[in-house]
Amino acid sequence: MKIKSIIAAALVALVVSTGSTTTLFAQRKSKSLVVYFSRADENYGVGTISEGNTAILAKMIASKTGSDIFEIVPEKAYPKNYRECTNVAKDEQRKNARPAYKGDIDTSGYDTIYIGYPIWWGDLPMVCYTFLEKHDLSGKTIVPFCTHEGSGLSGTDNNIKKLYKNVTMKKALVMTGRTAQNNRSEAEKQVDEWLKK
Fold first, then answer.
1. Distance (Å, rounded) from C-alpha 30 to C-alpha 36?
2. What is the pTM of this model?
């Protein structure tokens, strides 16, 4: 009984000295997660790039929100040539394919999931569906973000919402790949404004 009292007193002292209980759980992982798919190499509107447009946004969002981050990396890489890649993407979409990806992450401990992707043929890349269908995100807050070159969001937020029960969908961040790739200050400004909503 005496030991319990000492432990309780020590915890109270710690909470009082720090002003909150959050420091007690400093080793706990973030409650939010950024999951994204992005492709470098030759891209429409920006040429050959070393980092994908969506990856740039994903890293900004993770940094600004303190989120953990997971990249969806296909087991079979998409072609580096833009036209060849679009042909593969269209074929996957036509077949409703679910390409495999490398590694995985346990999403059960997260309350908020930011999901990032480029718009390919008016939809998410099929490898994103592989991830989304593998993880039950019901009851969580889902925050989509995408890059595009003219097609906008293309209703992909609704496509994601249909996969789960009782999810809270937040307004998506929709940005051109050119802005993400070539105007980082503007991209960061848009990310900041979106995160405030």
1. 17
2. 0.84
